[in-house]
Amino acid sequence: MASLLESGWQYLTTNFSDFQLATFGTFIIHESVFFLSGIPSIFLERSGLFSEYKIQKKVNTPAAQWRCIVKLVLYHVFVNLPIMVLSYPAFRYMGLKSSLPLPPWPVVLSQVIFYFILEDFVFYWGHRMLHTKWLYQHVHSVHHEYATPFGLTSEYAHPAEILMLGFGTVLGPALTGPHLFTLWLWMSLRVIETVEAHSGYDFPWSPSKFLPLYGGAEFHDFHHRVLYTQSGNYSSTFTYMDWLFGTDRDYWKQKALEGKNGKDF
Ligand SMILES: [Zn+2]
Ligand SMILES: [Zn+2]
């Protein structure tokens, strides 16, 4: 692994404790990746730039965007951060380490791919449960307040949902006891993936255009814009779970109609 990366890591482990890196370090990395990747879609909505790639015609008001940002900051500070601090002993027990040398890339990448596949499976079933009547009304309807999603709405959810679906995010790392570097890379890629899925824009350069079985913005946008009992498309990252269990039928029907009539949302 590149020596520049190892020198940077050396600096971190010399100046900060394992606890500080795994908790506050993880929090800072999460906030940076989340807001840096999520804020551009707010500016695109406001400016009207690239409107030809916007999936829905409707745009969110600045007040609705601000409400989302304020609630997110509160949830992150008062829910996510305490969870990171409280779960540190469990991660240590599961084998989380931060010392040099950094793991080789084949190990890092195979672990991250495993985390994506496992998280998608857990998320699919958890999300399907959240679309049952009681759980939807009391928990998941918060995430669906935004029928026209923008990047930052990806983490806009009831605290109980953050806990429930966050389980899928930490399950893979908990099973494999990764290096903190791998954990940060996984978290960053997962955040970028879900922010893109909620961005509201389907660009010609979106990952779904190049990666087979990848869901992306158009796939998840459909989930937000239709009635909760008919939404389908429950997966977080891939499309095959919805295909296997037949929960993507309405989406493909709608796509076929769009093909006939031209896009009109
Ligand atoms: Zn949902
Ligand atoms: Zn969503």
TrEMBL record:
GO cellular component entries: endoplasmic reticulum membrane
The protein's Enzyme Commission number: 4.1.99.5
Sorted UniProt keywords: Endoplasmic reticulum, Lyase, Membrane, Transmembrane, Transmembrane helix
Entry keyword Endoplasmic reticulum: yes
Class of enzymatic activity (EC top level): lyase
Membrane spanning stretches: 20-44, 64-85, 105-125
Subcellular localization(s) per the UniProt record: Endoplasmic reticulum membrane
Residues in Fatty acid hydroxylase domain copies: 113-247
Reaction catalysis annotation: a long-chain fatty aldehyde + 2 NADPH + O2 + H(+) = a long-chain alkane + formate + 2 NADP(+) + H2O
Topological category with respect to the lipid bilayer: Multi-pass membrane protein
GO molecular function terms listed in the Swiss-Prot or TrEMBL record: aldehyde oxygenase (deformylating) activity; iron ion binding; oxidoreductase activity
One example of a Gene Ontology biological process annotation: lipid biosynthetic process
Recorded superkingdom: Eukaryota
Main location: endoplasmic reticulum
Family membership noted in the UniProt record: Belongs to the sterol desaturase family.
The protein, known as: aldehyde oxygenase (deformylating)
Native organism: Asparagus officinalis
